[in-house]
Design brief:
Elements: H1 6-22, H2 33-65, H3 69-98
């Protein structure tokens, strides 16, 4: 029993991706009012939770470590960048999920 060559495997993989993208589901990604409402709702909910958790974490660490105003601002900047990334990724996932034709 021999394994298929790498080029044969790559051609099979690319062919299956092409067939999956050419089906009727590829043209079905469209926006409706309910999809837009779902996307905005999920994004705002998760964003508010992330901002609240980040603010609480900064407040707690700042108080625990006895940081002044400058230390708190530096800590907020250090925690804020990953928080913004989490919000951005959540918005991307919500966009993908809301426009997925399988969710119709």
């Amino acid at each position: 029993m021999s394994l298929p060559s790498a080029s044969a495997t790559n051609s099979l993989t690319s062919a299956s991706k092409t067939n999956a993208q050419e089906g009727p589901a590829a043209a079905q990604r469209r926006w409706t009012a309910m999809r837009l409402l779902g996307f905005v709702s999920v994004t705002l909910f998760v964003a508010s939770e992330v901002v609240a958790a980040t603010g609480a974490g900064v407040w707690a660490l700042s108080g625990l470590l006895g940081l002044g105003l400058t230390g708190t601002e530096v800590l907020a900047a250090l925690f804020g960048v990953p928080a913004l990334y989490v919000i951005f990724k959540c918005a991307q996932f919500a966009l993908i999920a809301e426009t997925d034709p399988a969710n119709d």
